[in-house]
Write a structure and sequence with these properties.
By secondary structure, the chain is α/β, with parallel strands linked by helices. It has a single domain (3-179), classed as Rossmann fold. It has helices at 13-25, 42-53, 87-94, 114-122, 143-179, and strands at 3-7, 28-31, 72-78, 101-108, 127-135. It has a five-stranded parallel β-sheet, with helices on both faces. Helix 1 crosses helix 5 (143-179). The longest helix is centred in the last third of the chain and has 37 residues, at 143-179. The chain is globular, with a radius of gyration of 17 Å. The protein starts with a strand and ends with a helix. Bound molecules: flavin mononucleotide. Flavin mononucleotide binds at residues 9-15, 40, 45, 48, 78-82, 107-110, 112, 136.
């Protein structure tokens, strides 16, 4: 089974979760990188608010792996103003993701999951196998707390990967039945 982790990040929290998931599941990893780098403070904060509120699509660099080539895709986003990161809207404009097995994850300052609700809606033509949200793992005060969150994310991802593998096996059985 081919597994991909597709994510974007500014401060590294979502990246830490993405890497934990990839390490546990043996997935390939693709980071979506904005053409215009933005910071999470100052005038850039206002620019980002504008971008999210008025649904602007920021430019992104080409990324390594095409999600349509994968059986299971983990998609990870930081929560921005209760939405998913707008870099994904740019991506969805270029690449139509449908009929895939998808699992979503997000990191945020709070436990609100509105970004995942919106991302689920956007990807409703695929099978969403699960969602995972956590609070800023790398901003924790000690390494142990960070590790605990990342381990939990990795366990969740392994469960998703196991479910996806089982589904693929069952689909293959059904396909063979229709051939013979
Ligand atoms: C522009 C901006 C808007 C944000 N809006 C929210 C928000 O609405 N809700 C929330 O819980 N966290 C919000 N945050 C906090 C981030 O979601 C959180 O720090 C996340 O872990 C950042 O991910 P990253 O380190 O991968 O960039 C916001 C951060 C930024 C930079």
């Amino acid at each position: 089974m081919k597994v991909l982790v597709l994510y974007t990040t500014v401060d590294g929290n979502t990246e830490a979760v993405a890497n934990a998931i990839a390490e546990k599941t043996g997935a390939d990893v693709s980071k979506i990188v904005r053409v215009n780098k933005r910071h999470a403070y100052g005038i850039d904060w206002l620019r980002l608010w504008f971008e999210v509120t008025f649904k602007r699509h920021p430019g992104i660099f080409p990324f390594k792996h095409d999600p349509r080539d994968y059986d299971l895709v983990f998609i990870g986003t930081p929560v921005w103003f209760n939405r998913y990161n707008p870099a994904f809207d740019t991506l969805f404009q270029v690449i139509k993701i449908y009929d895939r097995k998808i699992a979503l994850f997000s990191t945020g300052a709070t436990d609100k999951q509105k970004a995942l609700d919106k991302l689920s809606k956007k990807l409703q033509d695929s099978v969403i196998l699960g969602r995972y949200h956590c609070i800023e793992p790398i901003f924790e005060d000690d390494e142990e707390s960070t590790k605990k969150i990342l381990d939990e994310a990795a366990e969740w991802a392994q469960g998703i990967a196991d479910t996806a593998a089982k589904m693929i096996e069952e689909e293959e059985c059904e396909r063979r039945k229709t051939i013979f």
